[in-house]
Automatic annotation (TrEMBL):
Phylogenetic classification of the source organism: Archaea, Methanobacteriati, Methanobacteriota, Methanomada group, Methanobacteria
Keywords: Membrane, Transmembrane, Transmembrane helix
Native species: Methanobrevibacter olleyae
Residue ranges constituting the EamA domain according to the UniProt record: 8-140
Name listed for the protein in its UniProt record: EamA-like transporter family protein
Transmembrane residue ranges: 6-22, 29-54, 66-87, 99-117, 123-141
Lineage top rank: taxon: Archaea
UniProt xrefs under Pfam families: EamA (PF00892)
GO CC entries: membrane
The keyword tRNA processing is assigned to this record: no
Length: 142
């Protein structure tokens, strides 16, 4: 059970810190300068985890297993960072920006799951989509 819970708790903690830091990024700093420092920090931390904690037997062999997904994921992460920084600079509240984005994401991923992975779209999910759309309207009209 713990193996199911701890990753979600880490997502919640990390996303909380992420939103606090993104909202607190000074508006006078160049967005690419802050992202560069962010990714240098992330690269150093990841390298420490990879090399010293996991101790792969052959670093080059492990790196040779990487495919296109790592590069596209890197581009997607940069897109996420840029979008949130610009959203907060545009005036989105920290309490609603992530909520609105994640509701939209959840709706899109229902269709992605069906199209790319053959997952079934259930009646509950369709009802959930309409409930989410109603929630988005309430959040953005209030």
């Amino acid at each position: 059970m713990w193996e199911m819970i701890w990753p979600i708790l880490l997502v919640i903690l990390s996303n909380t810190l992420y939103n606090i830091c993104t909202k607190s990024t000074p508006s006078n700093v160049n967005v690419f300068a802050t992202l560069m420092v962010t990714y240098i920090t992330a690269a150093i931390l990841t390298a420490i985890f990879f090399v010293f904690l996991l101790k792969p037997e052959n670093v080059l062999s492990e790196l040779s297993n990487i495919n296109w997904t790592s590069f596209v994921l890197g581009m997607a992460i940069v897109g996420l960072e840029l979008a949130y920084i610009f959203a907060f600079r545009a005036g989105w509240k920290v309490s609603s920006a992530s909520l609105v984005a994640n509701i939209g994401l959840a709706i899109v991923l229902i269709f992605v799951g069906a199209i790319l992975y053959g997952e079934n779209i259930t009646l509950k999910q369709i009802i959930g989509i309409f409930v989410c759309i109603g929630g988005l309207l309430l959040i953005n009209l209030g």
